[in-house]
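A student in our group prepared the protein record below, which I am reviewing. Thanks in advance; the entry in question is below.
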Amino acid sequence: MLRIQIITIIASLSFLFLVFRMVVKGRLREEYSIIWLLFTGVLVVFSFWEKGLLLVSNLFGIYLPANLVFTISIFIALVYLLHLSVVASKLQKQNKLLAQEMALMKIEMEKLKEKEAK
């Protein structure tokens, strides 16, 4: 059991470091990093405090603490995917609007060029 706890601690801290590094380098925006930092922080806490995971599992009536981790992970992933879908939909609408505005501006510029040529 100690070996898996050490592996979990190392993996969680490594992932936490990776997220911080990506934010600092500008590869991940702060608002998107919050969910990763919170989730990884919870993993780090439960990696060190094994009895806490058992306590929370018993509180929710879950027999195996690993099932709680998987259930929460799947739920968080689904919520995050929904959030990304909303962001992608918003960006798609903005891109469409920008393309339409650029097309209108191009038409107006061509009309102005025609007037200047005459």
